[in-house]
Structures are given as C-alpha cells and as structure tokens.
Amino acid sequence: MGKYQDIFDRSIKDPQGFWGEVAEAISWEKKWDKVLDDSKAPFYRWFVGGELNTCYNAVDRHVEGGRADQVAIIYDSPVTDQIRKITYRELLDQVSRFAGALKGLGVGKGDTVVVYMPMVPEAVVAMLACARLGAIHSVVFGGFAPNELAIRIDDAKPKVIVSASCGIEVKKVIAYKPLLDKAIELAEKKPQHTVILKRPQAEATLAAGRDHDWDELMSKATPAGCVPVQATDPLYILYTSGTTGMPKGVVRDNGGHAVALRWSMEYIYDVKPGDVYWAASDVGWVVGHSYIVYAPLITGCTTVLFEGKPVGTPDPGAFWRVISEHDVKVLFTAPTAFRAIKRDDPNGDYLKKYDLSGFKYLFLAGERLDPDTYHWAADRLNRPVIDHWWQTETGWPITANCMGIEPFPVKPGSSTKPVPGYNIKILDPEGKELGRNQEGLVAAKLPLPPGTLPTLWQADQRFKESYTDPYPGYYFTSDGGNIDDDGYVFVMGRVDDVINVAGHRLSTGSMEEVIAHHPDVAECAVIGVTDNLKGQLPLGFAVLKAGASTDHGSIQQSLVQMVREQVGAVAAFKKVAIVGRLPKTRSGKILRGTMRKIADGESYKIPSTIDDPAILGEIETALKEVGYGGK
Ligand code: COA
Ligand code: AMP
Known about the structure:
The protein has 2 domains: 4-308 and 388-481, Rossmann fold (3-Layer(aba) Sandwich); 504-625, ANL, C-terminal domain (GMP Synthetase, Chain A, domain 3, 2-Layer Sandwich). It is globular. With 631 residues, the chain is an alpha/beta fold. The strands form 10 sheets. A 7-stranded mixed beta sheet has the order 5-4-17-16-18-19-20, sandwiched between helices. Strands 7-6-8-11-12 form a 5-stranded parallel beta sheet, with helices on both faces. β27 and β28 form a beta hairpin. The protein starts with a helix and ends in a 6-residue tail after the last helix. The structure holds coenzyme A (COA) and adenosine monophosphate.
C-alpha cells in the first residue's frame, strides 16, 4: 500500500487519532478534552475544551522561536511601484498595536469587525489584530458594491469597520470611502466606528466621532496581548454566494482551522517553515484568508501579498518577475490568471526572461482547470502543475495531488484524489452511492475534517438545509462530477445557480434580484455562459412588462448599470437578451440548463417537461442578437 493510501485510510478510520497527532504542531494554551465532538451531528466540533490564540500561532510564537528577523510578508505592489518587506518582529509590533487600537474602540472577544480593504499589508494586520483579541473578522472583497457590503454589515453587525481611502485596479484609483459611506447609509445596523487607512492616491473625508485615521490610532495605541479563545470559538465569518441574494456567512473556528491549515502546507503544498509561498488571490476570498494570511504565517513561511494583476501590471511577465525576485517556491492562483497570461503571451516569451530555479510547484484552484490551460502551463513551466478543488465552506483543499505525501501522475481535467480527511462519494439524485465512472453529485461523508465550516453565522437551520439535509450523513458540495477507476476525482461544475467568473464566486440569484427591480421588467433569469478568459460570464434574460418602453437598447444598458452598481464591477455583467417569455417546465421551473446550452452553442435535447417547445427558437434568436449561440 502506498504512503497516500495509508494516511488517507487512517484519517477516515481513526479521525480522532489522526487529527489529535496533527494538532501537536499548534501551540495550545490548554489542550483539548476531546478531539471530535459528534454528539450534536450534523454540527461537529473539533478540539473541544482546547484553548489557543490564532494570532499567537501566526506571529508571536515565530518571534519567540527564532524567526523574529525573517520576513513574514513581502508586499509587492506594481500598481504603487513599491516593495515592502515586513519581518515577524515588525508584524508583531503592528498587529499588537492595531489590536490595542481596536480595543480602545471597544472591540473585545466575540465582537465582530468588518474589513473592507485593498491588497495592502494593513488588511492582514487588521485580520490578525482581530484574532489577537478573540474578535471575529469578516473581510468583504473590495470589488463588491455598497449594497453587497451593506447586506454583510447587517448580518455581521460589526462594532468597527476597517477600510482604506482607495484600492488601485491596474491604473484606476477606486475611492473606497464613498462606497463605505454609502454602505453604512444603506445598512440598518450602523457600526460605532470606522478606521480608515489613508493612502496617498486618494483623500478620504472622515466623519468626526465615527471615523478614525489608521496612522493616528496606531501612533497612540497601547499594544494588546493575545486573548486565549476556545478552539470552537469563531475566528472569522466569510460571506460567500449562495443561490439567493442573501450570501451565506461561512463560520471558521480557531482550533480546527489552525490544525488543518498547518498540516495542509506540508502535506499538500510541500512547504516548510521558512519557505516563500505566494497565493495570488485577494484577502477578500477564502484563498486569501487561508493561503495569503493564515496557513503561511502559522507555518512560519514568508507570504507574498501582491497588489497587481497577472497582465497589465505592467505586462504578462508579472508573475515570473515576482517568483524570480522573491524566490517563490509555490505559486497558487486561479486558472483564469493563466488564461490571461496565455492570451497576452501565447509563446511564453516573458517566462524566458526570468530565473525561476527556486520555483517548484504551480497550484491552481477556484474553478475548473480546463485541459488546454493545464497543458499550456505544464509545457512551459516544466514543473508540476497541480489542480486542486475546494470551496469557501471547506477552507482548504478537498481533492488534490498531495505533493508532500506521494505525488501521483497528473490526469488533466482531474484534481486527483481526496485529501486525507475527506471521504468523497458520488451520489445519484436520490442519495444512492454511485460506482466508478458514474456522473453524479459530489458529496463527503460526515464528519468533515477540522477547519471546515462548523455552521453558518447565526443560521444553523440554513446550514442544515444547504449542506446536510439534502443527503443525510453527507456534506453536499453542490458540485457535480465522477471518480474514475484509479480513484481520481473529476469535478465538472456547480449543479446550483452559483457561477464562477474569473475565479470569483457569484450568485446569479443576486443579479436576478437586481434586474427584477427595473420598472420595465416582468420576469428575468441570469445564467452562467462559457467564456474563454473568465471561465464563465453572467448572461441575463429579461421579459418586459406590457407597455414597457420599446427602446430595448436603453433598458439593456440600464440593467447592466444596475448590476454594476448594486452587485459590483466584479460580476462582469455586460449582456442581457430581451425575450418574449422564458422557457419553463410545465410546473413553472425555468429551464436554465437548456438556455445555457443554446447560449454556448452546444447541442441540446428538447426537455420532455417543457411547457412549449416553440419558445426555444425565440431564445436562439434573442441570444444571437446579443452575440451568443448559433454555432
Ligand atoms: N476593488 C474594486 N474593483 C475591483 C476589484 C477590487 N478589489 N477587483 C476587481 N474589480 C473590478 C475591476 O476593476 C473590473 O472593473 P471594470 O469592469 O471597470 O474593468 C471588474 O471588477 C472585473 O475585474 P476582474 O474580475 O479582475 O477582471 P479583469 O477583466 O479586470 O481581469 C483577470 C481579468 C483574469 C486578469 C483577473 O480576473 C484576474 O487576475 N484573476 C485572477 C484570479 C483571482 O484572483 N481569483 C481569486 C480567487 S483564487
Ligand atoms: P469558492 O467558494 O469561491 O472557492 O468556489 C468554490 C467553487 O469553485 C466550487 O464549488 C467549484 O464549483 C469551483 N472550483 C473550485 N476549485 C475547482 C477545481 N479545481 N475544479 C473545478 N471546480 C472548482
């Protein structure tokens, strides 16, 4: 039996023994009483009775343990033309002072803090400062519009919001403060305070009494120490798109999270303390939480915080420049970034300009890695290109080719095998386990390993309805796929209304809610269609009310503008087809799958349940008008 199989089998047969041993790599204030409490299944709790502080594990213990002068964060920002290196000692100083500043604003254990920041080191400092106090952070991605931020403020009810005067998108300066002000105006639960990092690229007007200047608070702050919390206490809430306009508040605990992430660095990514690790994502996404901030810092690595894009900052050699300049061992990004590089530098000429001798692995996740992109990257890089699959909910990889255990041959299109801890099964719609090579729903037998979501923020019922009620005894991933004869998992895509645009997870439901508010729209639908660069793009369909304006062009324009303003530019919602009616089943369900196939120019069968087949011809015509279908 191979090494992988041994470790995997043990993790499933004896999860308590397995994770109990793994947990020794973390510094505990008090050891746990029980590794796994399954008495309230499907709500599982890891390391019950244990106490620790995540910030202590990510910062203090490295300073105490001899890494004080090692660089913790390399801030590489081509958009502001600067590189800043922060040692663990400096990070400790900043984090403990910012924790003191938050404490001064009344933040303590169990309070929530929203962080709405661009990719600057202060975003990491704010997250760690919350962890230090036992407060719960909720980072909101900067590309979301005020309305989306307001929804998250109302749900998380933060005492304080930490933000900045602006973000920088290639050359565009995006003023964040007006967006924040608007969100606070829209929110019902107003925060007592905000802290604003003033960046030289944009001014920010501060409201007296409510808004505080980051630098001023830091200069006066008394450093605060680490507050021990229960392993099961929440470290953060991260909102992610579900099928409705109300995002799901994924909760992460402290203990299981630290244990799982620390393990994943060595066994999945083959990364050791002291190595330079780079996740080219954003702190607003789960990849940023786990692999820009917590996993590399808990492991004592140097993490790269890159404020730029794979192309345009300034050229498609940006990734190679960063890898070479900082001696990056592992790069983790989304396939879309590679499609962008491939588009601008098809022969990989920029790659040849840099010394990449220290670069060992490229890991890709966030969306399906299409075989073309895989081959392009693997052929040019000449080193392992590893597809791995996971979700905001799990916080760390579910399937991967574990480079620190036993590398397997790559099968393009597959994210290889289940990671130890994840007992993956393929189910039919009735919940029966399917055999090898049979396409079905991907599920994981409960319990999930440590570090995965214990519940949704103040929404236990929604947690059950979304994840564990559909197939009792399993966690339902909402992805479809199959497992082949060699045990390789192929994840084919979502079976719900969540779409993936340039690696950003978005809800078509939230866009539909916006469109439905247009006075001329009677009914609408948004689907995800294939896009060569971003993987998927949203495409709208609107049925107009009788007597609506006949100026379809201006209705389409205003719908695009509404989604941009209310969901955010990141949705990349650019096209709406005006149709006479939507194709539906006789019971009234919109046939989104058929619409998607028509838009993608794929062949399709007319569903036997369709109310009126003639409508599909009308859909084809409307789609052609907006540039889709008809292949
Ligand atoms: N703050 C404000 N606006 C933001 C933003 C942020 N943090 N992030 C993105 N936006 C805006 C962009 O400026 C753009 O606006 P525009 O419509 O005015 O041009 C829009 O949202 C879409 O942005 P993006 O998805 O980044 O698309 P792009 O066309 O600018 O770039 C890629 C395409 C592929 C280069 C880019 O998506 C990319 O680098 N992706 C990497 C994948 C990634 O990081 N995934 C995260 C999960 S691992
Ligand atoms: P997020 O929660 O933003 O990480 O998005 C999770 C979703 O992205 C998953 O449910 C999948 O649909 C998709 N996804 C992520 N990684 C992969 C991958 N390697 N292969 C296929 N789909 C992926």
